[in-house]
Design a protein that fits this description.
Elements lengths: L15 H9 L6 H5 L36 E3 L5 E3 L3 H15 L2 H12 L23 H18 L1 H22 L13 E4 L4 E6 L3 E4 L11 E9 L7 E6 L5 E5 L7 E5 L7 E4 L9 E9 L2 E6 L2 E6 L14 E4 L10 E10 L5 H6 L14 E3 L8 E2 L9 E5 L19 H7 L10 H19 L2 H18 L4 H9 L9 H12 L2 H9 L3 H8 L10 H17 L8 H15 L12 E2 L2 E2 L16 H18 L2 H13 L38 H8 L8 E4 L4 E4 L5 E5 L4 E7 L8 E7 L2 E9 L8 E4 L2 E2 L8 E9 L3 E6 L4 E5 L6 E6 L2 E6 L7 E2 L16 E2 L6 E3 L2 E5 L8 E2 L2 E3 L3 E4 L2 E6 L9 H6 L7 H17 L5 H13 L5
Parallel strand pairs: 22-26, 34-39
Antiparallel strand pairs: 1-21, 2-23, 3-4, 4-15, 5-14, 5-18, 6-11, 6-15, 7-8, 7-14, 8-9, 9-10, 11-12, 12-13, 15-16, 17-18, 19-20, 21-22, 23-24, 24-25, 25-30, 26-29, 27-28, 27-30, 31-32, 32-33, 32-39, 33-37, 33-38, 35-36, 36-37, 40-41
Helix pairs in contact: 4-6, 5-6, 5-9, 5-19, 9-10, 10-13, 12-13, 12-15, 14-16, 15-16, 15-17, 17-18, 21-22
Length: 969
């Protein structure tokens, strides 16, 4: 998902009697929980934060069958219990949030949309999930999945009780919406003309009411002044006083609040290119305030009540830069942020920057000393109708738009959302973001949460609700022509549908209803699907998380479709496989995060050039890990689990702050890799990453162990302290390890049970110093190649012990497009350099190398575990909870060819591919002797002379320096 601004929270009150009555209707919730407003699980859970007790033995209704194309499958979440580790500690913090966050907050917007009262004290989650927000409701789906996983992972019944309560309320909402099918919307309310600061004013409700000014009203202006009186009803972040522009790339606005106070912005390149004036004090609510913005000669000034309070002299853009603006609004945003709640009076525009004295005069009279705006002047002295006269004499009449406070009833039974069906209808008319915002994305998250409630807690009620939603989806989409669907799904963000094909294909597999599979195929995004089938990489410039889950959907269609309508069944599999290979490793950072510009895929093998302030969003990795798991089930190809480890141990575990909170999941949105980056953990509840992050942290056990479909083999994919219960084979497998916090890489696996079994141990991609395995003390003769699995095939007996050793080693990883932009990792863990510098650090290492070519001679251990020093800087594991500035990547600076203390005086030049002379020499390490080292240096030097990169004289200096060097082993 994508959003350019965060938005505030609105709330409303209902009677406690109504709240208790409605809460008591939620079937399956104990009366005390109902009386508490549905905040089941907010009390302390005795021992609950350890979740140590397994839940093996639960019986659930049948879920989707194992596809016949799988060779490997997973274990249910309740079969694997985490022992104490870095991962269980992170999970426990997230369980605290799951217990404490009120369920009624997640239900707020659903009840409001269905016309049901909300309990006292309930409020929406915030950010994107607010009343009037076009993505409201998506957080609820994530939260249901969180609770379902918490229950299945052994957290106790309180998570199920809380989830059952939510499902019960959602069923009431669906029933209420079913009763409204086919009913028309109520008429819009009249415009409210009220008493203003001078004469009359227009009152804007904050919900679908705003003023439209004529096209191009500011398009001829360079210097200007915009001024008005505003009485704010409610200070809502990002609501606009005015906004002139053509969309989300080109605009000029003044917002009531940008987080700590008003902001004036102008840009022609989206939010990242904004030129801003910020004021750090919030405007008062319920009080008339005069605001004005002037621009002249590159200087912009913000005035509040006649006083200049903030300014910038670095403005290069003017309204002329925006072109002919078609979206000229008072009280509305280009981004679909909440409308302005408050009254506006004396809105004036001049074609020059008024002086400070002239601005001051506007606080004393309507027109002040200038006599009113000479471009436009809206006094809002009308008493009826929906037009506002222009008192400047330019006849630029404005229109006050007022929309219905209600909406038509759904078109078909089964509809469930936190907003009316309007967004879906507008998408079919090709409305674009931000007029609408990914309605099918939100539909998917709700259905996913319901299916997880069914799959992990046995809630048949949740399955019925999800099936009703699928029936409604079929009614909307099945009759649409493919050309219309293709146009819809190609729309940026508006056409984002997440993994709708996944939930529909799973519902088909569970229920046997063919309509659901037909509807799943409606979601084929043809232009990217066709490209993937033909292995044509056109991902550059595409929205990453809009498209990654689509390929998970195609794979699910392949798995559950005996026959398909739009493409051959094999095409669905081919598209998913080829897409994954376009992303990994070609668009991946060291931590597994997806490389690109903000949330947009970059070009293939362009990684360093994408590093900026916004990169490595959490949601794309969340979906890439899902796709990786699923592809492994089909092939058992180790590359999928190698990437899974990189992402899980690199980015996922680094996304969550090591702190307690029952009100905020404390996960990052982006996990940036730019120089001097700082993690921002707070304030993401209500955005998409505030939903996927909690899910990630309550399912760590899902991929530790897999089994072959026939049960003859066990795959140990991840090294994580855990216990596997496998009653069908009579085995219990206990894994003890401090990996990845212990650089010895030691793992002990105890086998309880007996019988023939192949145990497949994954050899991590990073292994450099050997991977050894002992069974009952006897070293096994294995061909342990990094990036593969080794197999222990034997008749196992109770008490058998497997000991694995895979010592960590330091390594550099280069970016493919700029080889001298590098990062350091230790085993599976990226190391970050602590520094507040906003520029790339220049680090050198080769002069400290010995014949081993081992980085351990250039990077030395510090006092704390997994911590090092190099070039005067401290290096720490990325997973450490740290809000200090860090550098994931740095610039490798090896300016001269130096061997130890022997300096040749020759520049360390680079070839066309970016690799330097020293890179090629040390790539051949370790060297058995100094003679071997000298031979390698001479060979590379001779090659570079032939290539014209060195002179003969420089060659002699380099060879002499290699001979004079004193390098240890």
């Amino acid at each position: 998902m994508s959003a350019n601004n965060e938005v505030g929270i609105a709330s409303q009150k209902i009677s406690r009697r109504d709240a208790l009555r409605l809460s008591a209707l939620a079937a399956g919730v104990p009366p005390l929980l109902a009386a508490a407003g549905g905040t089941a699980g907010t009390a302390a859970n005795p021992g609950g934060t350890s979740a140590a007790a397994g839940t093996a033995g639960k019986t659930y209704p049948p879920g989707p069958p194992v596809p016949d194309s799988w060779v490997v499958t997973d274990f249910p979440l309740d079969r694997v219990t985490l022992k104490d580790s870095l991962f269980s500690r992170h999970r426990d913090l997230m369980l605290e949030f799951a217990r404490g966050y009120p369920a009624d907050n997640m239900l707020y917007n659903f009840r409001a949309n269905a016309g049901l009262p909300n309990p006292p004290g309930a409020q929406p989650p915030g950010v994107w999930d607010i009343p009037g927000g076009n993505l409201r409701g998506h957080s609820t789906g994530h939260f249901m999945t969180l609770l379902a996983q918490a229950h299945a992972g052994g957290g106790g019944s309180l998570y199920k009780d809380k989830l059952d309560y939510m499902v019960g309320v959602l069923e009431q909402c669906q029933d209420a919406l079913n009763a409204m099918v086919g009913k028309p919307a109520p008429p819009p309310p009249p415009v409210s003309w009220v008493t203003g600061r001078f004469g009359g004013a227009v009152e804007l409700s904050g919900a679908g009411q705003y003023v439209v000014l004529p096209t191009g009203i500011v398009s001829a202006l360079t210097d200007f002044t915009v001024a008005c009186w505003v009485s704010i009803g409610q200070v809502i972040t990002w609501s606009r006083i005015f906004d002139f522009g053509t969309g989300t790339n080109s605009y000029m606005f003044l917002t009531v609040d940008a987080g700590s106070g008003p902001r004036f912005s102008i840009t022609t390149s989206g939010p990242g290119g904004e030129q801003q004036v910020n004021y750090g004090t919030e405007l008062p609510a319920g009080k008339w305030t005069h605001v004005a913005v002037t621009l002249s000669g590159g200087t912009a000034t913000l005035y509040i009540n006649g006083a200049a309070v903030a300014g910038s002299s670095n403005m290069t853009l003017t309204p002329v830069s925006l072109g002919s603006t078609g979206n000229n609004w008072i009280g509305r945003s280009q981004f679909g942020d909440p409308d302005l709640s408050g009254s506006v009076d004396e809105f004036q525009i001049w074609n020059r920057a008024l002086s400070a004295a002239e601005i001051q005069s506007l606080t004393a009279s309507a027109g002040g000393s200038p006599g009113g705006g000479n471009v436009a002047w809206y006094r809002f002295d009308e008493t009826g109708g929906n037009t506002a006269a222009d008192s400047s004499g330019n006849r630029r009449t404005a229109t006050v738009v007022t929309t219905s406070l209600g909406a038509p009833g759904p078109s078909h039974a089964g509809y469930l959302a936190a907003y009316p069906e309007t967004q879906f209808i507008e998408l079919e008319r090709y409305a674009t973001y931000p007029a609408i915002w990914a309605p099918w994305y939100t539909c998917h998250m709700i259905m996913r949460g319901l299916l997880d409630a069914y799959r992990l807690t046995g809630s048949k009620r949740a399955l019925r609700i999800a099936a009703g939603m699928a029936d409604w989806a079929h009614s909307r989409l099945a009759h649409l022509p493919r050309t219309q669907l293709d146009t819809m799904w190609k729309l940026y963000i508006a056409g984002e549908y997440n993994a709708m094909p996944v939930v529909l294909a799973e519902l088909h597999a569970i229920t046997g209803n063919r309509d659901y599979l037909t509807t799943a195929e409606c979601f084929v995004n043809t232009y990217l699907f066709d490209a993937a089938v033909h292995n044509t990489d056109i991902l550059d410039g595409e929205h990453a998380n809009q498209h990654i889950p689509q390929y998970q959907g195609y794979l699910r269609i392949f798995e559950y479709a005996a026959q398909t309508d739009y493409y051959t069944r094999q095409d669905y599999y081919t598209a998913a496989v080829n897409f994954w290979d376009m992303v990994v490793p070609h668009r991946i950072y060291v931590d597994g995060g997806v490389a690109g510009r903000g949330e947009i895929f970059g070009a293939r093998d362009v990684v360093a050039a994408t590093i900026g302030t916004s990169n490595a969003e959490g949601c794309p990795l969340y979906n890439m890990l899902k796709l990786s798991r699923s592809l492994f089930f089909h092939t058992s190809d180790p590359k999928y689990m190698q990437y899974f480890e990189r992402g899980l141990y690199g980015q996922i575990i680094a996304r969550r702050q090591d702190a307690h909170s029952a009100t905020d999941p404390l996960v990052t949105y982006f996990l940036p890799v730019d120089p001097g980056a700082v993690r921002e953990y707070q304030g993401n509840l209500g955005d998409c990453d505030g939903g996927t992050g909690p899910e990630d942290h309550t399912k760590f056990q899902e991929s530790i162990y897999f089994r072959s479909v026939d049960g003859s083999a066990l795959y140990v994919n991840l090294y994580m302290a855990s216990v596997l219960h496998w009653p069908e084979r009579g085995f219990m497998i206990e894994q003890s390890t401090a990996y990845p916090e212990d650089p010895s890489g030691s793992v002990t696996i105890r086998v309880a049970g007996s019988g023939r079994l192949d145990i497949k141990l994954r050899v991590p991609y990073w292994v450099r110093r050997g991977f050894t395995v002992r069974v009952n003390g006897v070293r096994q003769r294995l061909d342990a190649v990094a990036g593969s699995y080794v197999t222990l095939s034997r008749e196992w007996r109770p008490g058998d012990i497997i000991r694995v050793s895979m010592p960590f080693s330091l390594r550099m990883e280069r970016t493919p497009d700029q080889p001298q932009t590098q990062c350091i990792a230790y085993g599976p863990i990226p190391l970050v350099v602590q520094s507040p510098s906003a520029s790339y650090l220049e680090l050198s290492f080769y002069r400290d190398f010995t014949l081993s070519g081992d980085l351990s001679h250039a990077i030395t251990p510090a006092g704390a575990p997994m911590t090092f020093t190099a070039n005067g800087y401290t290096l720490v594991p990325f997973y450490l909870d740290d809000t200090h500035p860090y550098h994931v990547y740095f610039h490798r600076s090896e300016p001269e060819i130096v061997f130890g203390s022997a300096d040749s005086g020759v520049p360390n030049r680079q070839r066309a591919d970016g690799l330097s002379f020293l890179d090629l020499v040390w790539a051949q390490a370790p060297f058995a002797s100094k003679g071997t080292f000298q031979h390698a240096v001479a060979a590379v030097a001779a090659e570079w002379v032939r290539a014209g990169l060195l002179t003969a004289a420089e060659q002699r200096k380099i060879v002499a320096a290699a001979s004079a060097a004193h390098l240890g082993p």
